[in-house]
Amino acid sequence: MNQNYRKIFTNKLFLLFFSFAYLFYNPVTGNAVKLNSQNVDMTLASNELVIINFYADWCRFSGILTPIFEEAAAKVSELYPESGKVVLAKVDCDSETSIASRFQITKYPTIKVLINGQPAKREYRGKRSVDAFVSFVQKQLEDPIQEVSSLFVAADVKSRVVIGYFESKDSQEYQVFRKVATNLKDDCLFYAGVGETFRAMHPPNETIIEFRPDRASPKSEHHTFRGNSADYDSLNIWATDNCLPLVREITFENAEEITEEGLPFLLFFYHPDDLESIKVFKEIVGTYLVQEKQRVNFLTADGVKFAHPLQHLGKQHTDLPVVVIDSFKHMYQFPENSDYKNHEHLKTFIDDLYSGKLHRDYHLGPQKLTSIKEALEPPVTMPPESTFKKLAPSKNRYTLLKEEL
After folding, report:
1. Do 405 and 327 meet the contact criterion of CB atoms below 8 Å apart?
2. pLDDT value at 154 more than 80
3. Is the pLDDT score of 380 beyond 60?
4. Of 389, 328, 327, whose CA–CA distance to 358 is shortest?
5. Is the distance from CB of 325 to CB of 350 less than 8 angstroms?
6. Cis peptide bond upstream of 109, omega within 30
7. H-run or E-run covering 362
8. Fewer CB within 10 Å: C terminus or N terminus of the chain?
């Protein structure tokens, strides 16, 4: 009898060990959808919002994030049970190397956001908690369109606007408009007028979609979309061209995204009461300096909100407008004897950055570089350090803060 009990006990112990080993090496998929080469394209194509956790089993931070992300996926599924709305998914980068390569994953965990099958401009870098993930999803799925009940007048002078007039919200044209608005809601405000109120403005069954530039734009006329309003690709291309201008406004909200593009900033600091100077600057850049967009990001910045960078240059709001190049290492001020209204002076400013002249002139003064020795042994003085580099993505963004656990 003792031998039989010993045998039964041994068998149960073996089964328990085997079960533990199986669960350890073959974890339950959980609430997040596990993506592979067979289902990834269909998942992205069939859902409005997909958030993907790219992880590696050997990564300690991936292990910490996993239960948090799984719980968030469960809550999101409860909030949005309908198919095609939102999916929280995960990719094992060791087993799905082709997917990891496709999304250029190099650090773990990385959390990517995809809207209508296309990667968003920003990765998710918010707090890594269940509530934070759920709040992020809710924010992303807010209706990107504001409905208007009368003829539209833009309230925000700094915003670019796309407005459409539709027969009904059930129309294919409205659904395409909403999809485009979801993609570009961070770059334009989207409005819609629907139904009887607007029927007198256009022939029956005809959709009208217009772009209206911000009031600081040198071009104040409206642009009407001339393509097929039910064609997503055509409308998306047209809206993107209008909503992403050559000269953009930098804010604390989009600075990380723009910094990550890697191009030095040519910054036009303006006073918020002086929109006319912005128009002039935009007109000059758009007319003469389009070819320079591969070398610098042309940006306007509210000199009152961004007072700190100006203080580094010894400037204040009474000195505005001020033109600066920020190389992410140093800030260089536009020469005092130059005029920002002269496009050749702006072009020379950019050329001098790339030739190294701005840096040499700061050390030695203009045209004072007389020997190789001076070039190799510059003075200790340095231009003001970049302040915008502090708004760039943190090198530690893939780790978790202690309070986030």
Report:
1. no
2. no
3. no
4. 327
5. yes
6. yes
7. helix 357-364
8. N
